[in-house]
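Job type: complex structure
Entries:
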Amino acid sequence: MKTCLIVDDSRVIRMVARKILEKLGFSVSEAENGAQALDICKRQLPDGILLDRNMPVMDGLEFLASFRRLPGSGDTAVVLCTTENTIDDIKRAIAAGADEYIMKPFDSEIIHSKFTEVGLL
Amino acid sequence: MRSEDFELLSGLLKQRSGLVLPKDKAYLLENRLTPLARQNGFRGLEELVAAIRTSRPEEILAQVTEAMTTNESMFFRDRRPFEQVRKVLLPGLMPAREPLRRIRIWSAGCSSGQEPYSLCMLLREAGEALSDWKFDITATDMSTTMLTKAKAGLYTQFEVQRGLPIRMLIRHFHQIDEQWQIAEAIRSMVKFRLFNLLDPPDELGDFDVVFCRNVLIYFDQATKARVLNAIADRMAEDGVLFLGSAETVLGVTDRFSPVQGQRGMYHLQGKIPTIAKP
């Protein structure tokens, strides 16, 4: 079973995303911010990460910069999932190491589409 | 919904669009036509039907048909057909069209344009290899609402996130407020035309490739056969037809045969499609 880490400071978003991803067959874990997510990833790299951008303690792009320095992290697909929706925001995220990008709000079709795009489905 | 009202509406829809609505889908009539009834000043669906029964006002009939035949589309829907175009169809067809360097494509039932625009993006991304080729892309639908939207090439944030890789979004679209518009260079690659598949497509010309995906599912067998046979009449001998993943020609018409090893692709019976071996 493929694994996915949801990183978002919103409990509601984590809950909604979890429901969708579990239905798609993922084993899901959660983190409230980038620092927590990094700890989890240092122990075990997930197959995919659904990553919020604006979080306290450590935000998504800071996490991504540290994450991509972990050995083996290149095999993990990172889908940034954020309310920021300009072309510049998207370019910045891709340059930082995101494989795909979701502009909130999302639905199950968008998650399915993006996770298919990165090869997880 | 009253049985006689269902019979009247479903009969009209079949006659005007070929759409076959089974009785268990009667709720779709209620969902889509009740708002339409109110917009036209009727209290509800029953009054709308009574007006149709009395005088058959053409404008109302056209609106009813539009409301029932507009369907969602998405970019790169099903993915596989677009991979087949890239890896199997174009590498085979291009050498065969070498003198003229022209390929004619028909997206039949194009809805709000995502299918023809997906093809255009695929062709643009192929780069230099296709830069001096001419792709005549005709996209047709019977809904003026859908065609208006398709021509504008303007999509919501939801629509551009379904099926479209993010890198393609930022390469081929720009933002207008909260919406995304596909680049003029792509929009200009497609000729959109109002066309009902029940009508003979002679005026559209001939095609090397036809996409008729997820349209025939709404028709009965006889109408499916009629549409497919009409497409066959307009198809180049070595051309290819793409149908939706849940569709087939088998048992419907003997004018087409499946392309071996390529699900969803069909060639004219007795002819050899010009495709590459993957």
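Summary: Chain B has two domains: 3-69, 80-268. Residues 80-96 of chain B form the longest helix (17 residues).
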